[in-house]
Amino acid sequence: MTPAQDPAQPDAAKPATDALVLRYLDFVRFEKRLAARTLALYAEDLHKLQAFATEAGQPLTQVQSAHVRRWIAGMHSQGRSPRGIALILSGWRGFYHWLAQERLIAHNPVEGVRAPKAAKPLPKALPVDAAMQLADFHKPAGAAGDEAGWQELRDALLVELLYGAGLRVGELVGLDAVASPEALGWLDLGDAQAHVLGKGSKRRSVPLGSQAIAAARAWLAARATLPVAARTPALLIGRNGTRLTAQSIWQKLRLRSQQAGLATPVHPHMLRHSYASHMLQSSGDLRAVQELLGHANISTTQIYTRLDFQHLAKVYDAAHPRAHRRDGDKPED
């Protein structure tokens, strides 16, 4: 068995490691006591730096910010992810910070250099038909006092408030059955509004649709018959009378989406995304959707315009005759 390769030392296929790199790797190994895996990653990133500098004909101590930016652009064009580039830059930045401390360079050429921005992933939203399939799903309900019966009424309301009102799961958890000075949130069925405490301890009011109001009335009537309901002011409770947690809501929604026949397991924020996307598709009013969601910055809401464009693109692909022309087809004269 061959001994493990020292991460601070290059293998035979690599050029000799620069003496400054070796000194720095010894520094982080003994002074920072880095784990072997972390040390190996540092060494790999610095070998990349040395290779770039050698190709450019620059000693490591004479590398400039323009060189670093050019190398970043090259890595990005070759498919390196923004996150991967950011990690490499972090390693290089630490190396040049050490060189500056050792008074071997006048300034850090990596300072102020940033990795390319990573594309923001689109929020996952259900198609309208799938969201309606989940919202319309109802298991056979028993009597109001029957456990299966009252749980069904509670879970139906849970879906209505997540999809029909776009509440965050934390806002949903905080709802009480009646308004009070201590309540974080409550439903005002007479005024058709949900009053919630959102991010940053900001209160907002969200309109409730007729389906949500009907579901809330049915659940409150069933809840009033439960002896355990007297133990807590919470609107949504479990069999022991305790307030439902965010985790339990995740689990119940995942199970309900499976029972409703949806191919994709649904989580609470997916219903909030669906609420926002479907509202934007129907209204096109970005400012109104921002207010309904409680976003402090409209740039947060604008991500849903990308979902809306995806929807329009799918409609185009499905309906427009020009969308199906094969690359090899000749245009008409």
Short summary:
It contains 13 helices and 4 strands. It has 333 residues and is mainly alpha-helical.
Characteristic terms for this protein:
333 residues; mainly alpha; DNA polymerase, domain 1; hpI Integrase, Chain A; 2 domains; 4-stranded mixed sheet; 13 helices; 4 strands; elongated; disordered N terminus; disordered C terminus; Tyrosine_recombinase_XerC/XerD
Question: What would your notes on this structure say?
Answer:
There is one protein chain. Residues 1-13 and 325-333 have low confidence and may be disordered. Helix 2 packs across helix 4 and helix 10 (268-283) packs across helix 13 (303-319). This protein has a 4-stranded mixed β-sheet with strand order 1-2-3-4. By secondary structure, it is mainly α. The protein has helices at 19-30, 36-55, 65-77, 82-101, 128-136, 147-164, 169-173, 210-223, 246-259, 268-283, 286-293, 298-301, 303-319, and strands spanning 175-176, 185-188, 193-197, 203-207. It has 13 helices and 4 strands. The chain has 2 domains: 1-119, Tyrosine recombinase, N-terminal domain (DNA polymerase, domain 1), CATH 1.10.150; 129-263, hpI Integrase, Chain A (Orthogonal Bundle).
